[in-house]
């Protein structure tokens, strides 16, 4: 059924960039903010792809408010204006969408934002290899008409606006794409902060962009350090070396003033992916044995100091509708098709995870103990994420523990499910392929948000869990650190925003 999207006034977009906290309440900003101050930020993971917006590095560009998208999402996940001020779906042809591009926007290199520039930027993402995962299974054709961008999909797609909110579809200046293997975001965004320089995997520098199309940033810039070691990040907050700190480890939270930390329920699930293509877990009964061996509550108590939630499925409490829909008869019928667990005795398995999220190695230790009690023999491989990701995706491990955001790209979990569990998914660590899951994901992708999409998503979850391709362990809560002088930093469950134009430091004494 076609949809006509209502035009939203300009003021709506400003409400998106600095007002929503984890509780949905408006954050206060200091009237005595020091507009000459620079914000020091300690980030969890270093760039893995030269800060290319076509990779997961795009979320850093978004969290620094240097790269922007056509569409933004509000606290409820609804599409709101970004670099597009309005959009509509054609009544006669629901595969066609029209986006009106905001006037008066310049890129950081001084060039003008035009419909043609938007089309070229989006086309670069379409042509990329691999494509950004938000485009998995999606065919887009772009054109320009009357200064608007037209987006045509091969099939009717209810989530075109939400897809265009993905940081991996950020709009950069034409010069960012010329003659480069990796797209260069330095000096080519449209946000309130301009990316000035990047020192490899060590640091990044951003300055206020004085010609920003909206209100200018309250801080003069930010200095970012990449600090994979969680203890060092926590120490940077305690000592005042960092004003804002990503992902304070649970084990460090108790050593920090409670007034400086914020706990946010995340749409992020700690999941054990099982290699369904080869090795012991190609047998569904062996996968079922692993599932039955796991004590989730013990993992949470032991590794997260009870600062997490038991996973009953792939989607957690950050999506409150998920739990209720698991009681539906259709969901329970699918789950009832799970294989019965085999008796395992001496079955050898390899278990991988990474150190960047400091709780995961401890989860691996506890999980090894639980699996060995069930009869498995476990060999662990734990490395930094940048050194283990390729092996995980290539199916080197029998099992892999991953902390995975479930609504990272579009605000909707179908893209995550497709990426991880569809036969053609680009991040299919489980090497999994099942017609029943592909069919369920296809059906869910065709539903409009108001027309039963949530139930269809949950039935797709049930199909995945029925195959034990992955075992959800727990739903994480992120602990974000902010110095007492900081105001207006975002506590964003989707991990898209962190430092915005509204973020400021109190005036220096």
Automatic annotation (TrEMBL):
GO molecular function: peptide transmembrane transporter activity
Superkingdom of the organism of origin: Bacteria
Protein name: Peptide/nickel transport system substrate-binding protein
GO biological process, one term: peptide transport
InterPro entries reported in the protein's UniProt record: Peptide/Ni-bd, SBP_5, SBP_5_dom
Region (Disordered): 484-509
Organism: Nesterenkonia aurantiaca
Pfam families with a match to the protein in the record: SBP_bac_5
Positions of the Solute-binding protein family domain: 79-426
A GO cellular component entry from the record: ATP-binding cassette (ABC) transporter complex
């Amino acid at each position: 059924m076609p949809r006509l999207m209502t035009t939203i006034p300009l003021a709506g977009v400003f409400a998106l960039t600095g007002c929503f906290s984890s509780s949905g309440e408006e954050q206060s900003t200091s009237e005595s903010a020091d507009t000459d101050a620079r914000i020091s930020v300690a980030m969890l993971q270093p760039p893995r792809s030269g800060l290319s917006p076509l990779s997961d590095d795009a979320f850093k560009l978004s969290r620094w408010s240097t790269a922007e998208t056509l569409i933004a999402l509000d606290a409820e996940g609804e599409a709101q204006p970004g670099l597009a001020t309005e959009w509509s779906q054609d009544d006669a042809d629901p595969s066609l969408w029209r986006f009106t591009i905001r006037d008066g926007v310049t890129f950081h290199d001084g060039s003008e934002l035009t419909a043609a520039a938007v089309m070229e930027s989006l086309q670069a993402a379409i042509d990329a290899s691999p494509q950004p995962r938000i485009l998995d299974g999606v065919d887009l054709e772009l054109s320009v008409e009357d200064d608007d961008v037209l987006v045509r999909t091969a099939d009717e797609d209810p989530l075109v606006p939400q897809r265009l909110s993905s940081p991996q579809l950020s709009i950069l200046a034409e010069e960012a794409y010329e003659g480069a293997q990796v797209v260069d975001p330095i000096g080519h965004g449209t946000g309130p902060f301009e990316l000035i320089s990047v020192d490899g995997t060590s640091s990044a520098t951003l300055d206020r962009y004085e010609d920003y199309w909206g209100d200018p940033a309250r801080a003069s810039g930010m200095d970012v350090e990449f600090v994979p070691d969680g203890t060092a990040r926590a120490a940077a907050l305690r000592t005042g070396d960092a004003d804002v700190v990503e992902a304070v480890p649970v084990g460090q939270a108790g050593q920090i003033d409670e007034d400086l930390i914020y706990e946010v329920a995340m749409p992020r699930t700690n999941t054990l992916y099982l290699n369904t293509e080869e090795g012991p877990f190609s047998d569904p009964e062996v996968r079922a044995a692993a599932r039955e061996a796991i004590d989730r509550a013990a993992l949470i108590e032991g590794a997260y100091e009870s600062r997490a939630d038991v996973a009953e499925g792939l989607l957690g409490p950050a999506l409150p509708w998920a739990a209720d829909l698991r009681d539906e008869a259709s969901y329970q019928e699918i789950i009832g098709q799970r294989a019965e667990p085999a008796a395992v005795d001496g079955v050898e398995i390899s278990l991988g995870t990474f150190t960047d999220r400091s709780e995961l190695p401890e989860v691996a230790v506890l999980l090894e103990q639980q699996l060995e009690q069930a009869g498995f023999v476990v060999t662990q491989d734990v490395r930094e994420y940048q050194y283990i990701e390729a092996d995980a995706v290539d199916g080197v491990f029998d099992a892999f523990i991953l902390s995975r955001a479930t609504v990272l790209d579009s605000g909707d979990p179908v893209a995550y499910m497709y990426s991880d569990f569809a036969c053609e998914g680009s991040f299919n660590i489980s090497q999994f392929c099942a017609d029943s899951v592909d069919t369920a994901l296809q059906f869910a992708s065709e539903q409009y948000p108001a027309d039963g999409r949530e139930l269809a998503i949950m039935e797709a979850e049930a199909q995945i869990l029925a195959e034990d391709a992955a075992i959800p362990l727990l739903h994480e809560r992120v602990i974000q650190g902010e110095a007492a002088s900081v105001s207006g930093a975002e506590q964003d469950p989707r991990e898209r925003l962190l430092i915005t134009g509204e973020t400021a430091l109190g005036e220096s004494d």
